[in-house]
Amino acid sequence: MAFDIGNLLQQYLGGAPNVNAGRALDDFDQVAQNAPRASVAQGVTEALRSDQTPPFAHMVSQLFDKSDATQRAGMLNQMLRGIGPGTLASLAGGALSHLFRGNESPAALTPEQAAQMTPDQVRQIAEDAQQQDPGIVERMGDFYAEHPTLVKTIGGAALAIVLGRVAEGMRH
Prior knowledge:
The protein has about 170 residues and is an all-alpha fold. The protein is built from eleven helices and no strands. It is about 65% helix and about 0% strand.
C-alpha cells in the first residue's frame, strides 16, 4: 500500500492544536521523506518566523548547538553572506574578523572554524543577519530542509507548524 502523505498532513491544516509532540516527530520523518523539498523548506521557514516558536536567532542557535561541524559551517556561511564586512568584523566579539582583508567578501568558514563558535555567538550573528538581510529566514529554511534529522531537534510544536505549512502548500 502506498504512503498517503495527503491524509497524514490533513490533520495539520489549521495549526494542529490537538497533535502531540511525539506524533509530530514521527509524522515529520514521513513527510521529509515523501514531500517535495521546496514544501519542507517553506514549512521550516514558517516555523522560524512564527510567533508560536522562539525567535529566529534563538532557534538558529539551538539548531547550531545540535549540528555537526559541517552543518555548522554551512549554516554560518548562509548567514554571513548577507552581512557586510564592517559589521561582520564586529560580530561575536570580533571572532570573525580574521575572515576579512579590507572590504573583500568573507572567505567561507571551514568546519573547524565553525566548531570554535558558541551558540551564543551564533545567536548574535543570527540577530544581526536578520536585521540586515530580509531573505535570511528563507535561506535558512531552505538550508535546514536539506537536514531533516536536524530539523527534528526544534521540537514538536515547531514541527507541527512545519507540517501545517507543508499541508497548505501541497493543498494548493
